[in-house]
TrEMBL record:
Coiled coil: none annotated. Its EC number is 2.7.7.87. Residues 14-199 form the YrdC-like domain. It comes from Solihabitans fulvus. The lineage of its organism: Bacteria, Bacillati, Actinomycetota, Actinomycetes, Pseudonocardiales. Keywords: ATP-binding, Cytoplasm, Nucleotide-binding, Nucleotidyltransferase, Transferase, tRNA processing. It catalyses: L-threonine + hydrogencarbonate + ATP = L-threonylcarbamoyladenylate + diphosphate + H2O. GO terms for biological process: regulation of translational fidelity; tRNA processing. It holds the Pfam family Sua5_yciO_yrdC. It is an enzyme of class 2 (transferase). It is found in: Cytoplasm. InterPro entries: DHBP_synth_RibB-like_a/b_dom, Sua5-like_dom, TC-AMP_synthase_SUA5. The keyword Protease does not apply. This is L-threonylcarbamoyladenylate synthase.
Amino acid sequence: MSTVYDSSRPDSRAAGLAAAAGAVRSGRLVVLPTDTVYGIGCDAFDASAVRSLLEAKGRGPDMPVPVLVGSWSTIDGLVLTVPRQARQLIEAFWPGGLSIVLPHAPSLAWDLGQTRGTVMLRMPLHPVAIELLREIGPMAVSSANRTGQAPPATVEDARAQLGDSVPVYLDGGPSGENIASTIVDLTGDEPVVLRAGVVSVAEVSEVLGVEVQVAG
């Protein structure tokens, strides 16, 4: 049985965040609001929970799960190195709708899918998400939809798709923009936009001072 917590009311918000934190710590799933679309998330370091997340979405490990963080500094412990271009993008667009792909630290014991040694990181611009992330730490979070269906802009949309596979739903109202984040890959010699989204390619190029290419 799942429970929806209204984050617009202080008492329900506190209860919801406590329930979500407890669920994540016990290896279960939660649905949380972000500034783009609603996400389904779990402890990034719990491989069993990540598998449950993929099963809830109806997809396999060939599409790795991104990781959300609650602060700029969290990234330092998750990646091999933070290059200058990553710092520039973080300072310009975090928290916000930009995801960055970097080689992850080889010492990390996580299994996010077939990542080929990389991790996609983002800091969302949503107070409920930030509060949960700062309480829990990095979370594996994907859009809260079944594969092939539209990413949800409301908690009702998410619950209609995921049902009781998720015990805790945090209702933060309609998402700000029902548009996915922009993904910038910094694992190669030159930055590449893998997906254009909330942040435009022109904005990314302006911050980096180079004309950024868009993947095929």
